[in-house]
UniProtKB/TrEMBL annotation:
Keywords: Hydrolase. It comes from the Bacteria. It comes from Rhodococcus kronopolitis. GO terms for molecular function: hydrolase activity. It holds the Pfam family LIP. This is Alpha/beta hydrolase family protein. Its EC number is 3.4.-.-. Residues 16-35 are annotated as: Disordered. Residues 16-27 have a biased composition (Low complexity). InterPro entries: AB_hydrolase_fold, Lipase_secreted.
Length: 386
């Protein structure tokens, strides 16, 4: 497993001792963004237009402020960087799963997440062609030891921020001006980072956030699934991911006390496979059979409520992209989030893409996203629909 040695190194350097000799010989504790390992990237996660591509592990912090090791990729354009270095797109990926095999940095042409990662990579490669360094985190517990705390706003924000720091440690051609972008799960992470990243990395200059179909209304998920309505069927695959992700972050969430034995095929698929495997495991499982009658949904609901992107107070302009035919993150749900963010005074530009579904919104929004970043890099005002 990638990062095992790095995690050991992080644990060793994080230790302290009351023995004076041991304390004086201890290595410094890694800071967020310190590069712990680096190797040339050669798999399907490679962005073909990049002049340099690295698979890295780096130091970060989880939602409780504890040190963790995170993996990800760094792609740098060919040629000579502009004055100030290459501007950066820090990309937060959409839901692939929670198992290590679902980490985008491990993508292969016949891999479990290539149908999604490959499509998004085609758009990210266009950023490289336009002169941006592209860094992509795998998030906490995906590709490195530990469990993935799915949707954890602080952990994901730290991960997308610290990988920018790591890229700058890795290659001096990477600049300090950056944008956070993301899709679905990552869209929510981008909104969270638009608030938290400014204070976390004051040495960097976060200029804007690009949120494509960001997940929202998260705290409604437990009750929605528990309703047993057939309308829930299309999102049943998210039951084990949201539940296990919450349990990884909060010990008050106990999956065994919430789901029935009928849901075990879904739970098993989530622990070892990716989103396609979970969908395949649904089979004949009925929505009204997966939640235990009278189960205490409070801790699970409370955890998700704390991760809502609506909790953020963005400190930079936000481009909010939404596909008109998105059935997973619906336009109606996004309009609610837009209203909540606008009421906080957010500089937000909402763009809708006719005929685009959940995944297609990434490519559909690219032209507007590049106009957004170019304007901000030039110090210009960007449109707002608030």
């Amino acid at each position: 497993m990638i990062g095992a040695l790095a995690l050991t190194a992080l644990a060793v350097t994080s230790c302290s001792s009351s023995d004076g000799d041991s304390a004086t010989s201890a290595s410094p504790v890694p800071n967020g963004g310190d590069v712990l390992s680096s190797t040339p990237l050669t798999n399907a996660a490679l962005l073909p237009s990049a002049g340099r591509s690295e698979l890295i592990t780096y130091a970060s912090e989880n939602g409780e402020g504890k040190p963790i090791v995170v993996s990800g990729t760094v792609a740098i354009p060919s040629g000579t960087a502009p004055e100030g270095g290459w501007p950066v797109i820090s990309w937060a990926h959409g839901t692939t799963g929670i198992a290590d095999t679902c980490a985008p940095s491990g993508d292969t042409v016949d891999g479990a997440v290539h149908d999604y990662v490959g499509t998004v990579s085609a758009t990210l490669d266009q950023w490289i062609q336009n002169g941006y360094a592209v860094v992509q985190t795998d998030y906490e517990g995906m590709g490195t030891p530990g469990d993935h705390t799915y949707l954890n706003a602080t952990s994901e924000s730290n991960a997308v921020t610290d990988i920018v720091r790591a890229a700058r440690h890795l290659d001096p051609s990477v600049g300090s001006k950056w944008f956070v972008g993301g899709h679905s799960q990552g869209g929510a992470a981008a909104i969270s980072a638009s608030d938290q990243a400014v204070d976390r990395a004051p040495e960097l200059t976060l200029l804007g956030a690009i949120a494509v179909a960001p997940g929202s209304g998260l705290s409604q998920t437990p009750q929605y699934i528990a309703s047993g309505s057939q309308a829930v069927a299309p999102i049943l695959s998210f039951l084990p991911i949201t539940l296990l992700g919450a349990a990884a972050a909060d010990t008050a969430v106990v999956p065994e006390e919430i789901v029935t034995p009928a849901a075990e095929p879904l739970m098993k698929a989530a622990r070892t496979g990716c989103i396609a495997d979970i969908r395949a495991a649904i089979g004949d499982i009925q929505v009204n059979s997966v939640i235990r009658p009278g189960a205490d949904l409070g801790p699970w609901t409370d955890y998700l409520a704390k991760q809502e992107p609506s909790n953020a107070n963005p400190k930079v302009p936000v481009l909010f992209a939404q596909g008109s035919t998105d059935a997973l993150v619906t336009p109606a749900a996004s309009q609610i989030l837009v209203k909540q963010l606008c009421e906080k005074g957010t500089e937000l530009d909402y763009r809708s893409y006719e005929g685009a579904d959940h995944r297609a919104a990434v490519a559909a929004s690219f032209s507007d996203a590049t106009a957004f970043t170019k304007a901000l890099l030039a110090g210009e005002q960007v449109p707002t629909t608030c």
